[in-house]
Design brief:
mainly alpha, 2 domains, rod-shaped, Magnesium transporter MgtE intracellular domain-containing protein, membrane, MgtE_N_sf
Length: 202
């Protein structure tokens, strides 16, 4: 009984080997042989074996779709990488723009401060100039008044008659009250009254 089981097992192994051998000899070896012959024929005729394989694979729908899908995926990855690179460059440029804008704002602020300071200095200079002119005018009036103090009241009155009312009153105001009285006595009554009124209400 044991012998029969053993012989059955050997028969199955022999059948298994013979089936494998049949597939090897009938299927695989002829395909390899045909591929080798095709390679030599194509090489002799000047046709690229790799290009022929690609063309043949492209005619098979499944392989063609796989190749197209792989190519699309590769292009998509390239686009994503390029977009990321461009976004990075845009951020860098924007950062530079913001930095330059800050510098420009700071420069504008400084210019405004300088303009305000310049306006203040101009106003101060204008006030000083007016004060200087007023001081010079007052000094000149004093000098003129001193000159008239040395002259006789009659001569002073004659000179004042040839001046405008404003000039005459300005000179009279620089004289002391005694000298004013002496000069007014030498003027015509109407003129003396007018000058007196102007001296009382400067």
């Amino acid at each position: 009984m044991a012998k029969n089981k053993k012989s059955g097992k050997q028969d199955q192994e022999e059948k298994g080997y013979s089936a494998f051998q049949w597939i090897l000899f009938v299927g695989i070896i002829p395909l390899v042989f045909a591929a080798v012959i095709a390679y030599f024929v194509m090489s002799v005729s000047g046709v690229s074996f790799a290009d022929a394989i690609k063309k043949a694979g492209g005619k098979i729908p499944f392989l063609d779709q796989m190749a197209a899908s792989q190519e699309q995926k590769q292009k998509m990855n390239e686009y994503v990488h390029k977009i990321a690179s461009l976004e990075k460059e845009v951020k860098k440029k924007q950062s530079k723009i913001d930095q330059l804008q800050n510098q420009l704002d700071s420069a504008n602020s400084k210019m405004e401060d300088l303009q305000v300071e310049n306006d203040r200095l101009n106003i101060e200079m204008e006030n000083l100039s007016k004060q200087k002119q007023a001081a010079n005018k007052a000094q000149m009036s004093k000098n003129v008044a001193k000159t008239y103090e040395t002259m006789s009241p009659q001569n002073v009155a004659a000179i004042l008659m040839k001046m405008t009312d404003e000039q005459a009153v300005s000179i009279l105001s620089q004289l002391n009250t005694d000298q004013q009285a002496q000069v007014l006595e030498k003027l015509p009554p109407v003129t003396a009254a007018k000058y007196t009124r102007l001296l009382a209400n400067p």
